[in-house]
């Protein structure tokens, strides 16, 4: 069985981590990206066979001929796409390739081009249309499965497969630091709702530090909001960080925060579990499965600033009482048992075999 995974190549967050984790150590799978970027670089570093199909325009249709030839000449049994651009291109050639087509839906397709204007609405429509033609769709939460049902995707074509990561053999060793420290690792994009977090952080009025890791189109707006709320001395915009750099920051982090309006099954929270750090998150992405108990962290309604303020204040009290490390250790034990990379790979490969049979 030969498998080709295809991605646009410009992912830098959870999508990148998912793809690399899925392919690492799998000799019968390789990766094709449609641009040189973070995904190809990470794949090479992980020892994954990777090819890059670079074209002058991101949406140049001249790529279709090259993509079709690459798939057919490579005699791949499965083509597995990740992301709207890869979905769209394979959909356009699906009748001219021999391979079975699988898609992983990492995010809400209605929000992938959020605030993209007319062009965003067009690509949203095209991506949703593509989802209806794949032989199999792996969705990373039951919520996404229900959303796709409402969009017309046939239920027999979908499987729920939760994300997993490669947990370190030992928990991270914390480094002493002066203040209660929170960290959010997320694209600076409206769907991540940094605005809500900053307003709540101000209203909570606790002696804490907030590190914001990530880059994106909301950078200027977030800078302006930090200044307007007079938080420049306690909120630090750190920009994009590598996984190793994030791991270093986790050593001085007491709680991971995620305030998204929509998520899949957030790898950033599994990475927090790996580090032994409890979480404070909005109720997105089957969170009742990832964080089923207050023993592991706080789960609040999406967009609820009052609930977020209360949770921040409660987390600070737990920090003062020395409870957070115990929560983090419990979260790590639970997540490592249920969401390992081995479980993810086994489930995905079983789906390939079933599809080919």
Automatic annotation (TrEMBL):
- UniProt xrefs under Pfam families: Glyco_trans_4_4 (PF13579), Glycos_transf_1 (PF00534)
Looking up InterPro entries in the UniProt record yields: Glyco_trans_1, Glyco_trans_4-like_N
Query: Where in this chain does the record put each Glycosyltransferase subfamily 4-like N-terminal domain?
Result: 28-164
Q: Which domain of life is it from?
A: Bacteria
Keyword entries, A-Z: Transferase
User: For the Glycosyl transferase family domain, which residue ranges apply?
Assistant: 177-319
Against CDD domains, the record matches this protein to: GT4_GT28_WabH-like (cd03811)
**GO molecular-function terms, A-Z:** glycosyltransferase activity
Query: Any keyword Transferase?
Result: yes
Q: Which residues form the signal peptide?
A: none
The keyword Isomerase appears for this protein: no
Protein name, please? Glycosyltransferase group 1 protein
The species this protein was found in: Lacticaseibacillus saniviri JCM 17471 = DSM 24301
